[in-house]
Amino acid sequence: MRVLKGEGAPVVFTSVLMIEKALTSADVEFVTTLHGDEAVSFHVLLQPRGDQADRLLRAIDDVALGELDEAVREGSMPEGAAAAGPGQQALEVSLVALRGAGSEAEGRLIEDHPLDALKAVVDEVGADEVIVLTDPHYVEEFFHRDWASRARHKVGVPVLKLFSHSKV
Question: Considering the entire predicted model, what is its pTM?
Fold first, then answer.
């Protein structure tokens, strides 16, 4: 654990964690052990599913991953305003899991301009890093339009990109 010189108080490592769905137990274990025994405080940002324009990209990603059932289900998943309720529930589940693993955790939903919201939170909390934990998004990644690629040019702190685990 880091200690401020001359103060003796432990310093907490501050991470902003961008997610798109509830964290699995494997995700929680992964992000809470990244810094060994160092205390970590998480500021979680979750963006509920976007609008129909994102549906095609998600379906292509599902097909690329061989998850044909998921691609077919894309049309029945709530999006936009209808996704806020499930998004809030996913956020709460994730915060409880992070706290249960011994980390400080707070969070919020972001609806518009996720990278602007990310930059604002990084500045507000004096974050040490950003962790982007999402499913693979091949089309966006290929064109460097995914959150992590775009965040690296915007936030002013290191950005770590991780792939989430699909099973809870």
Answer: 0.73
